[in-house]
Amino acid sequence: MACVLIGGAGPTAASAFEPRVESSFYGVNAPLLVPMAWQNPTAAQAHLRTLGGTGIDWVRADITWAGVEPAPPVGSVHVYAWTYFDNFIEQAAREGLSMAPILGGTPVWARSQASCGARSAPAESRAPDYGAFVRAVVERYGRDGSFWKARPSLPYRPITSVELGNEPNWGGYWCPTPEPETYAKYASAGADGAHAADPQIEAAIGGLVMMRINEIRNGVVHGMATDTFLSRMINAEPTLRDKVDSVALHLYNQDPDVNLSLLGWVRARMAELGLGSQNLYISEFGWGTKGGINFVSETTREANFRSFISKLSRTDCQVSALAPFTWYSQESDPGNPEHWFGLAAADGSPYPSGQAYIDEVATFEGSGTEPAVRNTLHVCGAPPPDQDGDGVPDESDDYPIDPDRSTGSGETPPPDPEQPVGPSRPPRLPADFFGVFAREMPWEADRRRSYYDSMQAIHLGVVRDTTLWNHAEPSQPTSPSGMPNWTETDPRVLGMARRGIRVQPTFIRPPDWISSVPSQAEAQFVAFLEAYAERYGRDGSFWAENGNLDRDLSVRDYEIWSDVDLNQGAWDGTASAAEYASTYSLAAAALTAVDPSARAVIPLHQSSRSGSAADFIRSMVLASPGLRGKIDSVYVEILQSSSPAEIESVVASMRSALNDTGNPTATIKAGIGWNTQGPSSVTETMRADLLAASADRLARSDCGVDAVIADSWTMAEQDQASAWDWLGIAERSDGALRPSGEAFGAVASSFLGYGEVPARSTVHACGLAAPDRDGDGTLDESDDFPIDPERFDGESPVITSSLNKSRSRVTVKFSATDQSALSNFECRLDNKAWTPCSSTLAIKRPRPGRHVLRIAVADEWGNRSEVSKRWKTSR
């Protein structure tokens, strides 16, 4: 299995479109077909015949050392038994399939411990015997192998890769505990054996379970972090850098986006270890539909396959091959997740998820019903691809044709689904002005993703996210396991950034090891904040590992703890303004040192009927006069207010406190919310009205508000007497919007250029002069941001269009109306460039497949509208 990005000719006779990958790129795990081919060849043939007609090129399964060499060698003489595996390889070859063998399964005579049974780790002294076994496999089944010479009439499908064991960083396959140093000797001997038989074969490190941290069971490491395993392996056998061709990986996170992110992480670690030139071989990934706690529905699994295969097939991570786990599974034990990963039924017919995989294989191999998406996903930070090796990057052109050959094969591939649809007119506010407080986030990936999708649908740009310090840093930094654990935070930041949402972290729950001495506790928290910023700030490692994400969505605003003006707010049980002033100063300086664009936020809880939040600010600066001019921002949580005017009063009070303490440029973030049960509750209809009215007025306030955050997204809704339990504006089950969520989203959409045109007049709650938003000396009292008052038009043009289709022609007619002058129309057919067009466009003899025509027009003030017409042309 060679590198994905190759040069070559155009589509084959069987291909309708340009292929994006090599024909050997896609395989499938099917370990149960090996014994089935022996015990029930008719059933096995049904599965193999289905696979052979799909474009899938190979089957990953075991050729076990124990099965081939059950008895130890006598002297240097090895005796191998091949009949069992000959049978399967012959049946697979007859259906046009090769085998990608996993070479593991320690014989009894080579095991280090009898107590672990068939999955026992091998004894270190038997590494040379393992190398001899690997060589024998390649000499039999590889290129020019004896198996093929003895069967000249059999379709020639030699093995071109070997995987040196399976999951050696997992106690289930290297029992009782992973030993990277011993595995290194086996990998070295196996790679030597494979290359001695065939210098061109791809020798892969056995599929490593992708883990960011160790998993401990009964005080023993059961699963070793992938980077730790690789580091110890290379330190034990540095020559492996030159001996192995690829590193096989197993991706089993519920969230496909997390799996993609892990590739960026492991790529970065591999580069540090001198493994930057090795391919990545995704030898297992998938989702079960029953058993355990991490299963998904078949509908979700089908969607996962369509999305994930498209992404894996076009990353810049040097993926050489991939194979889902698994084609067929037993489906007999509802409690055993291993039984429910199968993509096909017992008769070989694919489930919807299996068909989704087959469809994506066809698309990227050029034999599907439409071309593949062209755009490379820059996850791993590699330079743009030069697929035909002529020095011209082929970033989004036909594979392997250069960009200047714009007609390419004449294909019209679909647009990249990763690209968001922009606003229809200029926004009046920054994208992260409107947000929500996510007090709780579900652990189930399906439900969590549905939350993010709902947030994106109403154009929220920031989420106030709770980080549990005791979870992220359970051990002291000075301890052996003291590195922060980002396994809970990474998926949240990733999921939100994928949807254009920035995270605003707030921190709670100190770890058990925190010092009882206030100054030491303060220093420990500030050190943790630095680590957080080094991970998620502007130049953080998270963004380097996720090159497909927009770095502009890096964390900018960091709350320095949470609700610090409440007695239970500070980590040491006090709420001293003087003590907190010291913490804030230290934290702000530390954050700025890590990321000059970072802003330290003071998180306060303000009941709308008291002045405690504003007083807390005054007390802080009184205790630490050095904070004059040094406060970046304040978050004020304003719950259960009776009216928008009451909220404005609280905000104005905070503005006054900031101005009085020499912080006129400090911004205010307003958290607003109402509960629908418990004390001071309102109806859902009232909440929707209050949220919409308050958000609209705060968006136009002259008080220096830079964010409005709805509190909360979802809540537990269990305790009828607790107001906190009933703040949610979305359904807890799936994130579906309630009327209050829809009302808040409508306001956000209007100010961000998507929905209705918002009001333009400034709300003078703080008595300030009209703003000059674009800095040209003209006050922009009631105009669109950032356009001057005389340019009053904030309305977008209205486009009407029609489409008529015949066998040889598609005709689209369109027109536009607006209260001001219009520019010329622009059109974009499929993935081609925008070009000027008239009010009638005729497309002659469009190629078979799906097409989309985008039509756009703008008025003289820059308000732009766009519509799309879609159709499908049959062959």
Describe the protein:
The chain is of the alpha/beta class. 30% of the residues lie in helices and 17% in strands. It has 22 helices and 25 strands. β21 and β22 form a beta hairpin. It is globular and about 95 Å long.
Present the secondary structure layout.
Layout: E1 27-29, H1 33-39, H2 41-52, E2 58-62, H3 65-68, H4 83-94, E3 98-102, H5 127-141, H6 146-149, E4 161-166, H7 180-197, E5 202-209, E6 215-217, E7 220-223, H8 226-236, H9 240-243, E8 246-251, H10 256-272, E9 279-285, H11 298-312, E10 319-322, H12 352-365, E11 434-438, H13 445-457, E12 462-468, H14 469-472, H15 489-497, E13 502-508, H16 518-536, H17 541-545, E14 557-559, H18 577-594, E15 599-607, H19 612-623, E16 633-639, H20 644-660, E17 667-673, H21 684-699, E18 705-711, H22 739-751, E19 798-805, E20 809-817, E21 826-829, E22 835-836, E23 840-844, E24 849-858, E25 864-873
Parallel strand pairs: 1-2, 2-3, 4-5, 5-8, 8-9, 9-10, 11-12, 11-18, 12-13, 14-15, 15-16, 16-17, 17-18
Antiparallel strand pairs: 6-7, 19-20, 20-23, 21-22, 21-24, 24-25
